[in-house]
Amino acid sequence: MSTQSSRRSFIGYAAAGFSTLAVSRLARAQVATEPPPRALQVENAVVEPVSVEVNARAIPNFEPRDRTRTRFGSLDYRSGLVLTSPYRGFGGLSGIRLDAKGEGFLAVSDQGGWFTGRIRYSGGKMAGLDDVEAAPLLGAEGRPITEKRLWWDSEAITREGDVVYVGLERVNQILRYDFSKGGTRARGEVVPVPAGIRKLPSNKGLEALVVVPKGKDRNMPLAGTLIAFSERGLDADGNLTAFLIGGPTPGQFSVRRTEKYDISDAVLLPSGELLILERKFSWFTGVNIRIRSIPLKSIAPGALVDGPALFAADLGHEVDNMEGIDAHVTSEGETVLTLISDDNFSMLQRTLLLQFTLVE
Fold first, then answer.
1. Which of 360, 328, 339, 359 has its CA nearest to residue 80?
2. Which of 82, 83, 110, 211 is the most exposed place for a label (fewest CB within 10 A)?
3. Residue 13 pLDDT > 50, yes or no?
């Protein structure tokens, strides 16, 4: 979900009823999840390829109230970073994909930009980012997609080898990039999508993409299918709509919506588990995030799928507008989840990079 908040009016409103601390916490949460409509201009767009300086500050504890605690649901906290940059276009990070070692990354900004680089580790903990570069997402004509009306809200990313898919929320379109043809300089090709995707809400539409790998060595259902999730496109029963594009059984299915959570991203584990990152906001609880596990084998056209929550957190933890999730397996066999937040280019929010070990 994207936002271009009116910071002065929001702070002025919040200050009338809350203490300074409450303004900082609740205002940040409100901007993260229930923003006012964004203006149509793209103020922080990446206009050309450029090297970017990114500074990192460590987050030693995920729960500042209890610095001894590392276990949160089915996850163990490994490390985290607060990322800042003097580059105006850095921020709005809505999706991330890592290489097999969990070092090289490809991220997408919700204002039509790629970000690439490497995560630097020290003693198994993230220490910073190196070799960061920004570049504009290009359309089929070789021009930045931000030049087309509403074609800038890039919210979802998934990858299989050299093929990268990006979901655009405002127009509910999907672009396919072949990175063998220039990496982030490749041109995007529009992927034909079902009519149901085009009917999704403009600011609650395409939010997450997962591609099910092909190959005889992968015994997975739906091999070769692109799975697209809406943020809050609802079916007749109030559940979240999702779509199977291509593959052996294209169609539409639903994810059971509970506790007013919306989908912000998803990732497929080698085990066949599909993890869905979700979030919600209220003035009573602030911002909340959780991760649910959905068996891939339960997904089929017409299905209503559900699964248990593996993890949940709120503003008592080091969270923000968490919009991206990915996974990699370490040389020791540990499954590591990486989460990234979209700061909405707001002074009230942060770009966080968090890592956890999946222990159950």
1. 339
2. 82
3. no
H-helix or E-strand spanning residue 78: strand 75-84
Tokens matching residue 167:
């979901």
With beta carbons less than 8 A apart as the criterion, state whether 45 and 281 touch.
Answer: no
Please identify which residue in the block is written with the tokens 């004509």. 141
pLDDT of 213 reads: 92
- Read off the DSSP letter of residue 346: -
Give the list of residues 6+ apart from residue 241 with CB closer than 8 angstroms, or none. 196, 200, 230, 233, 234, 235, 252, 253, 254, 255
What is residue 146's DSSP assignment? G
Distance CA 280, CA 289 (A): 7
Q: Are 256 and 239 in contact (CB under 8 A)?
A: yes
Task: Point out the least confidently predicted range of 206-215, 277-286, 328-337.
Answer: 277-286
Q: Are 169 and 231 in contact (CB under 8 A)?
A: yes
Whole-model pTM: value is: 0.88
Give CA separation, 89 vs 154, 195, 287, in Å: 14, 33, 25
215: which 2 tokens? 């190959």
Q: Which of 118, 231, 103, 74 is nearest to 167 (CA)?
A: 231
Give the mean model confidence (pLDDT) for residues 332-358.
96
Question: Alpha-carbon distance 276 to 266, whole Å?
Answer: 4
In DSSP terms, 230 is beta-bridged to 206
Residue with tokens 């299918």: 225
pLDDT of amino acid 15:
31
